[in-house]
Write the structure tokens for this entry.
Amino acid sequence: MNRDLVEDVSGRLEAQVAALMSVQDALALSELVERGTLPNVTPAGFVLPDGLDGGRRSNATGPHKQPITEQVKVVLVMRAADRAGGQARGALQPLILATREALVGWTPDGEVEPFELAHEHLSGLGKGAAIYELDLRTRWIYRAAT
């Protein structure tokens, strides 16, 4: 497979989740973490690669084919007026539902299986914001060129 699933998921969020004010990548999130700040405008989404796992080779002879499970993480950030972030958590719920609806069961093409929800959780609450993570996975077949 020759696709960038992070790019595909980012494009899907931009097209389907109108409430997101921005969709950015791992580098943008890393810069915010390094500075100890939050996005200036929220709600914001960040899409990160979250690894892949190779399954057992499916054939003993012939060209190498191997099942791959690839994960993508979506991080949602919502600011609110209260310092504890409780208001942000409540305001985040419709965004979580919209994100789930846009991605779970969707496939960018016929090369990968539809995305499944692997895990989701509230990963941060405080400093006037709520941070929520959704882990999604899909499967595809790696076919060696030789």
Observations:
- The longest strand covers residues 65-79.
- The CA atoms of residues 118 and 136 lie 5 Å apart.
- The chain has a mean pLDDT of 88.
- Helices lie at 5-16, 26-35, 86-103.
